[in-house]
Amino acid sequence: MRGLELPAQFLMAYFLIHFRFIGLVFASPIFSMAVLPMPSRYIFAVILTVASAPAVNDSAAGYVISLVLFDSWVSVLVIVLREFLIGTALGLLAALPLSALYVAGEKIGMSMGFAMASTMDPMTQQQTSMISQMMFMVGLWFYFRWNGHLLMVQAVVESLRFIPLASMSLMPAGDMGTGEWFTALLVMAMRMVLPFYCAILLADVGLGFLARTVPQMNIFVLGLPLKVALGFFVLMLALPLTIELIFNYVEPWIEFALASATAWR
Asked: Residue ranges per domain, the chain?
């Protein structure tokens, strides 16, 4: 058998492309919010597949999918899992700025004394710091404002030109750059946290001198509200600079995610 007829061929191509969008929707923190039920996420993946039809037609026009690959359920499972992993890689790697905001918020909350004041995050259904939730929500709003979600969808469509469909190579053939991703995550988070650490360190030094000069004063009672007030003051000053830093990383890391996903070629 040489291949499917043209209508069925496009149907199978859309079927596989749909699993790339499923991986994107279920892996990216932009789309995979816990407040959205699973059926809604799946329907959203279907909507994305249908909405990208014109671009998919241009990218997938030359695909010829052999029937031999669909003779066994094992090969079908491998092909579908591969497309899902490609979408998952795109969703996770492209969301580096939001992940850095989340990590930085946790560290800032701990430095301000909010480690024991964690609350249930409705986005992830996990116990997180209030500062982490606030920074993540602000970053998420600006991410939508800068059309980061549309760039992610465009990255999935662009991946059709570099990563062929219906391949049996389940594992990536090369390095996906995960080491560089984790390094950039740590560096970006520390760039956001460093002003808070410096301010809290100076506050601790000042409280130390105060404790030596005025031993009758309860430093713990004085230090906790001082650190909270100082942390919010530094947050007020540093948040605009943090948003500007995130803006410079949105598009480059979507391009990095697309380049990393080409390891499945």
From this structure: 6-264
